Amino acid sequence: MEKLEKRTLKAGTNLRGEVRVPGDKSISHRALMFASLARGKSQISGLLQGEDCHATLNAFRALGVQIDSRDNSHLCVHGVGLSGLQEPANVIDCGNSGTTMRLISGILAAQPFFSVLTGDQYLRKRPMRRIVEPLTQMGARIYGRDQHSRAPLAIVGGALKPIDYSSAIASAQVKSAVLLAGMQTRGTTTVFEPHLSRDHSERMLRYFGVPLESFPGGARVTGPVELEGRDLVVPGDISSAAFFLVAGLIVPDAELLLKNVGINPTRSGIIDILRLMGGSIELLNEREQCGEPVADLLVKSSSLTGIDINGELVPRAIDEFPVISVAATFATGVTVITDAAELRVKETDRIEAVCSCLNQLGGRAEPLADGMMITGTGHLSGGQVTSYGDHRIAMSMAIAALVADGQVTIEDTSCTETSFPGFWDLLNQIRQD
Ligand code: S3P
Q: Is the CATH code 1.10.540.10 the one for domain 25-233?
């Protein structure tokens, strides 16, 4: 078995400087996928070099797409069009990446060949029925473990029929999988969702020339469509910036400028939540880049207050709850997070993982069926925690370590490569101690 990396961190004060976070993970996946499905060349820059996006890149190479890598984050994708993909010679490994597996399933469901998708031990435990069900309704044949609900998934693709699909959960992965199948299918496919989930697929498909319609409560596409190759610049990932936003707020005497961060309203729940808690976050230099809003974020140490977080705010900050829980520990009063049962089926059960880590370090966090209740203790004593192999738990605990009284040891930290290569170096760079 591979040896798991372990790190011990001590408190830091006076965080200062400019931070450039890596490219947005959701946008990077889609850029690789849609450029592969487009006709002609697309140059992509600012792409996330994390392991998750490598899984998507390797998947499209396995499907016969030529992708030249100029340097680390600049790529040229030679798109093959919707009918140019080839049957892969081997099983496609999606690694830890739910986005790779679920979105590619939507693409492969309509392709006239056989493919198999698998992933690491964590991804193979995650629920796939949510995409298997609508894609099967459209006529795809998808087989998997546990009554076709878990990977490996075997897909026998082919001509599909359009559907109107009401998703029980606000999930961009479900919405995107159905739209990607729908855009290859003759007729109109519509997806309804209970709250608006991230809309990067809709924005980027339009950017590649697809006349996709978004409306309150969902999106629709009439297929078959064609995508035209386009050059694309990926903005910094707000989910990676979130760690430095929280650090900037809870560490005394901190002031950080986070450059070039995507602030798409379907992703910016973290800014709203931290501001509602009393955090000082300014948006500077707001602009639009390839259909996505972008800004620089200036964050300064602030006194925080606990709040209730639920409803439409939850999907808008779904990946940020581990680090929000660290902010809540350093707020006055109680923070109650509900309507967030989805956290139980992320890279790990993030409700149990976050509560166990915070309690282990001397905080007070109580799991709820669909969220958690965090009492602001204003301090953590320190100790040892595990990341549960989850990149966002590892990085959240690193932020907690900045303000803990004693040392914090985090076991299993190599998983940060999933979404944030260079995280530990960046954290060291902004420490002035
Ligand atoms: C993602 C959607 C979200 C998010 C994940 C990335 C995407 O998942 O948690 O990290 O890129 O579409 P769900 O669709 O399961 O909510």
A: no
Predicted pLDDT of residue 12: 84
What is the whole-number distance in angstroms between the Cα of residue 99 and the centre of ligand 1?
6
* Residue 2: band (very low, low, confident or very high) from pLDDT cuts 50, 70, 90: low
Where along the chain do its domains lie? Answer: 6-23+235-430, 25-233
pLDDT at 410: 98
* DSSP H or E run through 188: strand 187-192
Residue 310, sorted as left (phi over 0), alpha (psi -120 to 50) or beta, turns out to be beta
146 is catalytic: no
Q: In the CATH hierarchy, which fold is given to the domain comprising 6-23+235-430?
A: UDP-n-acetylglucosamine1-carboxyvinyl-transferase; Chain (3.65.10)
Mean pLDDT along residues 287-295: 98
Q: Which class for 395: exposed (0-12), middle (13-18), buried (19 or more C-beta within 10 A)?
A: buried
**Candidate from 101, 167, 171 with most ligand 1 atoms within 8 A of CB, to mutate:** 171
**Marked catalytic residue, from 24, 237, 296, 319:** 319
Instruction: Please give the pLDDT value at position 56.
Output: 98
Question: What residues line ligand 1, using a CB cutoff of 6 Å?
Answer: 26, 99, 171-173, 176, 197-198, 318-319, 342
Q: Mean pLDDT, to the nearest integer, of 245-257?
A: 97
Strand pairing class (255-262; 292-300): antiparallel
